[in-house]
């Protein structure tokens, strides 16, 4: 034990006023004269006091990760010694008692054990409570989840926000987004099946897969490029369209002249709203005698339609095209499986028969499967008419753009 002199204590008496726990210890005195010195025997000054300097010591020091063995020790100075301990944990606005021993141990600490702790010590002279100590447990991201706002099913053209959240200590410092296409290979994109990965310096964790559905989408040029429509195929298609259009104009011009009927003495044509009917004249033996006006009027009245008969018009080109699209779809959709929808087999048969040139241009043997995945907006494994139309519209828009380019080139 080290000894030191007490300031202003060079008298035969030492007066200690307002003793504290720091005054406890062994005291001795030294006498000096001209001939030498002499030291007395030490005596113990026993100062009793209530607990002092109470604190929580966390072991091991430094970073504590999940799974580590952790010990919290309540340390205090007291005379007489501490004879009672109490541990408390702060959870929100509540305080929970956790134990009555000097040490509180976690054999394999978990994240839920992290928090604020303090202890209280007693002896017969009093008690003291320690400051609050924080037990911080480090762990990699967990409970990672993906939230779609406003919903995972959205209308085409609307804004969709995907939010990745995760619990981690330290906090997540990096989020990575992934998309799962039909082949199951992660890649970035704008629709389909998504998941996110949260990472901190301890580790990483991925969210469950979230499927995003787009209702009423027209994939247009994006769909055409996604399935790999070649520029050469579109150019060829456009060239054929232009050629057919020019040929149709020539035929219609010539046909107008050829289709004009010549009205002879033998036939009178009556145009009704329903149809054109020919009325034969002069069927008796006196055919060389011209019929009277009354005869003609009587014969025509027999073929006159009722006055209230509605007007029937021929369908336009656009209406005919719409009808053809509907008929083609239902011809294949009614072959088997669910009525009114195309399954994978029916879609393949339709494309092989109705879009054979397009399908042959695809270098990817799984092109139909990829198209099926892109068209199936509601994820039911079937393609309904609305989803089928998006394919037709996408290809049509791509061809129309090349069609305009080809027309400009032809005019030059």
Flag low-confidence runs: 184-189, 217-234, 256-290
| Helix/strand class | alpha+beta
Mean pLDDT: 76
State the major sheet. Answer: 5 strands, antiparallel
Helicity, as a percent range: 25-40%
- Ends distance: 110 Å
> What string, H for helix and E for strand, traces the elements in order?
EEEEEEEEEEEEEEEEEEEHHEEHHHHHH
Q: Would you count the extended β strands for me?
A: 21
Put the structure in a nutshell.
By secondary structure, this protein is of the alpha+beta class. It has helices at 220-226, 231-258, 293-303, 317-333, 344-354, 356-360, 367-375, 385-411, and strands at 25-27, 30-33, 36-39, 43-45, 49-59, 70-79, 84-91, 94-99, 103-106, 115-123, 126-129, 133-135, 139-149, 153-155, 161-169, 174-180, 192-199, 204-206, 210-215, 267-271, 276-280.
Architecture overview:
Helix 1 crosses helix 8 (385-411) and helix 4 packs across helix 5 (344-354). Mean pLDDT is 76; it is low at 184-189, 217-234 and 256-290. Strands 7, 8, 10, 11 and 12 form a 5-stranded antiparallel β-sheet that branches. The chain has helices at 220-226, 231-258, 293-303, 317-333, 344-354, 356-360, 367-375, 385-411, and strands spanning 25-27, 30-33, 36-39, 43-45, 49-59, 70-79, 84-91, 94-99, 103-106, 115-123, 126-129, 133-135, 139-149, 153-155, 161-169, 174-180, 192-199, 204-206, 210-215, 267-271, 276-280. A hairpin with a 2-residue loop joins strand 10 and strand 11 (126-129). By secondary structure, it is an alpha+beta fold. It has 8 helices and 21 strands.
């Amino acid at each position: 034990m080290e000894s030191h002199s007490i300031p202003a204590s060079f008298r035969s008496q030492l007066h200690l006023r307002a003793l504290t726990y720091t005054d406890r210890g062994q005291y001795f005195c030294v006498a000096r004269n001209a001939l030498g010195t002499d030291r007395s025997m030490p005596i113990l000054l026993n100062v009793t006091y209530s607990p002092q300097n109470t604190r929580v010591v966390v072991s091991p020091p430094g970073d504590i990760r999940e799974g580590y063995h952790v010990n919290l020790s309540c340390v205090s100075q007291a005379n007489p010694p501490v004879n009672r301990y109490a541990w408390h944990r702060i959870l929100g606005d509540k305080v929970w008692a956790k134990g009555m021993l000097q040490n509180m141990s976690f054999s394999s600490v978990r994240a839920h054990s992290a928090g604020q702790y303090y202890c209280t010590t007693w002896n017969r002279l009093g008690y003291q409570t320690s400051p609050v100590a924080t037990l911080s447990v480090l762990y990699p991201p967990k409970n990672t989840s993906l939230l779609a706002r406003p919903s995972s099913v959205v209308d085409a053209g609307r804004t969709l926000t995907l939010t990745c959240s995760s619990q981690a200590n330290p906090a997540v410092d990096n989020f990575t987004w992934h998309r799962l296409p039909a082949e199951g290979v992660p890649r970035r994109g704008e629709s389909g099946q998504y998941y996110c990965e949260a990472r901190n310096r301890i580790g990483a964790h991925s969210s469950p897969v979230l499927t995003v559905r787009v209702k009423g989408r027209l994939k247009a040029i994006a769909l055409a490029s996604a399935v790999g429509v070649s520029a050469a195929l579109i150019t060829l298609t456009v060239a054929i369209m232009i050629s057919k259009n020019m040929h149709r104009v020539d035929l219609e011009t010539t046909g107008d002249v050829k289709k004009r009927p010549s009205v002879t003495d033998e036939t009178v044509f009556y145009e009704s709203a329903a149809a054109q009917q020919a009325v034969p004249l002069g069927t008796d033996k006196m055919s060389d005698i011209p019929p009277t006006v009354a005869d003609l009027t009587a014969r025509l009245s027999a073929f006159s339609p009722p006055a209230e008969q509605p007007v029937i018009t021929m369908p336009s080109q656009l209406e005919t095209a719409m009808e053809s699209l509907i008929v083609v779809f239902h011809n294949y959709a009614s072959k088997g499986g669910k009525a009114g929808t195309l399954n994978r087999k029916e879609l393949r048969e339709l494309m092989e028969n109705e879009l054979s040139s397009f399908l042959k241009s695809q270098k990817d043997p799984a092109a139909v499967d990829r198209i099926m995945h892109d068209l199936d907006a509601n994820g039911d494994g079937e393609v309904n008419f609305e989803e089928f139309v998006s394919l037709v519209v996408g290809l049509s828009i791509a061809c129309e753009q090349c069609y305009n380019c080809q027309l400009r080139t032809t005019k030059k």
